[in-house]
Design a protein that fits this description.
Structural class: alpha+beta
Oligomer: single chain
Number of strands: 34
Largest sheet: 6 strands, antiparallel
Strand content: 15-25%
Helix content: 25-40%
Number of helices: 33
């Protein structure tokens, strides 16, 4: 069956839709489905997307294409709508750089079924559903009417009341009355009287917590800012703008035009003129404030909300519950998940970056209260006429009152989302759950009485294919995917491991088995874990569950009951039931798997210790061998070896805890004499930007040393503040750290930070061939690349291939020199399998190139948003193809060693 995945779209949630579409594209079972990527741009054009672009980090990394972008002095990123009013011919020219325009009447020629990964207006409001029904294309999820209900939070409130569901009391603020300005204080006073503080402000047609604020204090200014945020308007005051200076003005501008945190573009001015491009807006603000007496400018997005929903705040546990249908059309509420937030609002970052919030499944409540939530959500699913699946959110108070709000006819489809998290509790991995969604959706469309013969045949064919696929499962290569660990990189390791698992589980060649590793450097503890444990929120949650079962714990009674209710679904799509975690030895691992994929980062994993254990038992594995791993884990030793071979590296030195303890002043002076401020301080054996800091003065140096050399697990709050550590940012505890000079332009005509991946394979004579990919140019918002910019979908910007020069031939010539330098580094260090090398590149006069190596990652992050997949796509490898070649190399290496 050809499945058209429709993703992207014009809404503010387009980046989550883009990342979710990629998840669906990668996870569709390849023995059942052929995935067809249909990208919707922000003007509503349907594009049969060239598959390479699916693996870009964000939409703006490829669309609009570089050729269509106007001159942009300050490097402000834009979406298509910022190019202004485009003719059809101009749109076609842009579209042709990314794929082929599809007209809706052409859909049938390209796919049999539409999987909707769109979010927000146009995607969840019945619009796309109606279009597909008109053209006789079956689609996923709910139909037209429930979708229209599911998008409008204000209309939902009335329907909830009509059906007898308790819901937080609410009022609305109309845009016309708010825009008058004179009544704003009166509106605030009335809302405080009617609803009491705190107040919850919401944009009625948005998801992913966009446009949501909580007003806790009697603070009119905070209320006014929150309402503007929900309407997507912004008032900029001259006094504040001029006081902050150009650097902060640019930062403020980036936030302002961001479609999630700001108001987005285009904007309409008070005189009715429309500004499309952020650069034009920046110049307009500066010109207005410098040349007129105007003391404020009010900007309003051209698609602002017409009303803001204001709700009474409910004090209680927040939950989210996915409800699905069985084959008889009856709702089954999956186990509700409790959302434990680090801030008042479960915001975009908390939803989609691992480790920032906790999702506890099932919610931590007595069994009867959990069942009450399930009954209420199932009842609402039926009352609102939802089909196939829905996500229903709400709160439960201390006395057990349940308040439902924000029913959603679709859900985020990132690997960390509730969608997959809860489905795993009935034993379905993401690939199997997507198969369930497609099969159930076809059956649901059949109930409409339209296209009955065609849909019946489609359903029969799919059912036969599902049975055939299960019959051949035993013929696959068994891959143990080892994830977790105990370093500060353990959460990213779990994300990498899950991504590898998911890519392999949808393949026709491999059968992955998730293995969780914990313990310490003295003793590794390995556990075979089921899918529901693997999809827990982060590494710490997985460890907690594993230890719970090891100590004799039993499945939660609610989970056991739901497993029984969903047994027919589980059997149909998996052919097996859920198992409990099992402690295993390396010897037992050998009997369970044919090959291992190490998805660990830092120690253990990249230090050779795990490789030693696997080689003792002749278990093939991915990545470099023992000795090479022992070298590349240590950034100081790597720098020393490369420098001896004439490779450019930063001036470096180790700063040791014993010296710091002996005489702090002498310790600091020694560093300052060798390394003028600012310089870089970082752990010598951690990656993923863990504790990498630009040190600008003695106070920051003291804070860094105090944190990294601390005896306690807790962080000193003053030191954390000095280093501007982010929420829940971890800081490792080490016996030494690496100090490096800050690499700068140093007179080069072009200077950029790059990260380049590589892949190895054996030549016929048994020697190793290195395939070095086009490097990505990494753009950091702050002083160093953050965790979010590396691994969170929709964050950061990686431009692939790197922009070494404007002229294509010059660019390629410089790129080839950089790739040769990276290959030389890999050969010196005896890198095998694959790796990622980070470097700074100076392009000098006459296009001479100096490549300064920062670090080498022998097991680079393999999360869905990582830029190594952008690079491999240029060489024709989809992520699965890349992973397949990595495993193939490991298997061949093991065979060659056995022959010797």
């Amino acid at each position: 069956m050809k499945v058209g995945i429709i993703f992207g779209g014009p809404s503010r949630e387009r980046e989550i839709s883009f990342a979710g579409g990629r998840t669906v594209y990668d996870n569709l079972d390849k023995s059942l489905f052929e995935a067809v990527p249909v990208f919707v741009d922000s003007l509503g054009n349907f594009i049969l997307l060239d598959w390479q672009f699916i693996y870009k980090g964000t939409i703006r990394d490829f669309y609009p294409p570089v050729e269509a972008l106007p001159e942009n002095e300050h490097g402000l990123q834009i979406y298509l709508e910022s190019l202004g009013e485009l003719s059809i011919a101009e749109q076609d020219e842009i579209i042709s750089k990314a794929g082929k325009r599809l007209q809706p009447n052409e859909f049938k020629q390209h796919f049999d079924f539409a999987f909707l990964a769109l979010h927000g207006p146009y995607g969840e409001d019945g619009s796309i559903q109606g279009l597909l029904e008109w053209y006789h294309i079956p689609y996923s999820g709910s139909g037209i009417l429930p979708s229209a209900i599911g998008i409008d939070k204000a209309a939902q409130k009335e329907m909830l009341k009509q059906h007898g569901f308790p819901t937080p009391d609410y009022r609305t603020i109309q845009y016309a009355s708010w825009n008058g300005k004179q009544n704003r204080r009166q509106i605030f006073e009335q809302l405080k009287t009617d609803l009491s503080l705190p107040l919850v402000l919401k944009a009625p047609h948005q998801g992913s917590s966009i446009g949501v604020s909580i007003i806790k204090e009697d603070d009119f200014d905070a209320f006014e800012a929150g309402v503007e945020r929900s309407f997507f308007t912004k008032t900029i005051y001259k006094s504040h703008w001029l006081a902050i200076g150009e650097e902060k003005q640019l930062t403020s501008m980036k936030q302002l035009v961001d479609i999630r945190e700001g108001i987005g573009m285009p904007v309409v001015l008070e005189d009715g003129n429309i500004i499309y491009h952020p650069e034009e807006l920046f110049n307009h603000i500066n010109h207005t404030f410098s040349s007129t007496a105007t003391d404020s400018i009010t900007l309003t997005n051209v698609e602002h909300e017409q009303q803001v929903l204001v709700e009474a705040f409910i004090q209680g546990k927040e939950f989210s519950c996915i409800v699905v249908q069985d084959e008889q059309g009856q709702p089954i509420a999956l186990p509700p998940t409790e959302i434990v937030k680090g801030s008042e609002v479960f915001d975009y970052r908390s939803k989609y970056l691992p480790g920032l919030s906790r999702k506890i499944t099932p919610i931590n409540l007595p069994t009867d209260q959990i069942q009450n939530i399930r009954k209420a959500t199932s009842k609402l699913f039926t009352a609102f006429g939802f089909n196939v699946y829905a996500r229903l959110d709400g709160f439960i108070t201390d006395n057990g009152d349940i308040f439902l709000n924000d029913p959603n006819t679709t859900s985020g489809m990132l690997p960390s989302s509730f969608f997959f998290h809860q489905a795993a509790e009935i034993g379905l991995n993401p690939s199997q759950f997507l198969t369930y969604i497609i099969r159930t959706s076809v059956a649901e469309r059949l109930k409409t009485g339209k296209d009955t013969v065609k849909l019946t045949r489609l359903l029969q064919k799919l059912d036969k294919s599902i049975k055939d696929e299960q019959a051949h499962r035993q013929e696959k290569i068994r891959v143990g995917v080892i994830m977790g660990g105990y370093s500060s990189e353990r959460h990213i390791s779990v994300e990498s491991g899950r991504n590898i698992y998911e890519k392999l589980s949808s393949s026709t060649k491999y059968e992955p088995l998730p293995i969780f590793l914990t313990g310490n450097n003295e003793a590794h503890r390995l556990y075979s874990i089921p899918i529901n444990i693997m999809l827990k929120d982060n590494a710490d949650d997985i460890k907690e569950k594993v230890l719970y079962f090891e100590q004799g714990g039993k499945p939660h009674p609610v989970l056991a009951q739901i497993a029984g209710e969903a047994a027919s679904i589980t059997r149909k799509y998996t052919g097996r039931s859920l198992q409990e975690p099992q402690r295993i030895t390396y010897e037992q691992l050998k009997n369970l798997v044919d090959v291992v994929f190490i998805a660990l980062h830092g120690r253990p994993g990249e230090d050779g210790a795990l490789q030693q254990e696997l080689e003792k038992l002749y278990i093939p594995y991915n990545g470099s061998g023992i000795r090479s791993s022992q070298v590349t884990i240590n950034k100081y030793e790597t720098n020393e070896i490369l420098a001896k071979h004439g490779v450019s590296v930063a001036k470096h030195a180790m700063a040791l805890k014993e010296d710091w303890l002996q005489d702090k002043e002498a310790f600091y002076q020694s560093i300052e004499q060798g390394f003028p401020y600012p310089f870089i301080a970082k752990p010598a054996d951690d990656g993923c930007s863990s504790a990498v800091k630009k040190i600008k003065n003695r106070q920051e140096l003291d804070a860094f040393a105090t944190l990294i050399f601390r005896e306690m697990e807790e962080l000193d709050t003053d030191c954390a503040r000095t280093l501007s550590l982010g929420f829940k940012e971890e800081f490792p505890n080490k016996a030494g750290f690496l100090v490096e000079t800050l690499i700068s332009r140093n007179g080069a005509k072009h200077f950029l930070e790059v990260t380049g991946g590589l892949l190895t394979k054996y030549k016929p004579d048994g020697t190793v061939n290195y395939e070095v990919f086009e490097a990505s140019e990494a753009l950091a918002e702050g002083e160093v690349l953050s965790l979010e910019e590396k691994f969170l979908a929709g964050e950061g910007q990686n431009i692939t291939p790197a922009r070494y020069a404007a002229d294509p031939q010059r660019r390629q010539k410089i790129s080839d020199k950089v790739k040769e330098d990276l290959k030389h580094v890999a050969q010196i260090l005896n890198i095998e399998g694959y790796a990622r090398i980070d470097a700074f590149v100076r392009v000098l006069e006459n296009d001479e190139v100096e490549t300064i190596i920062i670090e080498v990652n022998s097991l680079p992050g393999m999360t869905p948003a990582t830029c190594i997949f952008h690079q491999t796509a240029i060489n024709g490898y989809k992520p699965y193809d890349f992973i397949d070649r990595i495993l193939t190399y490991g298997i061949e290496r093991n065979r060659m060693k056995a022959e010797i």
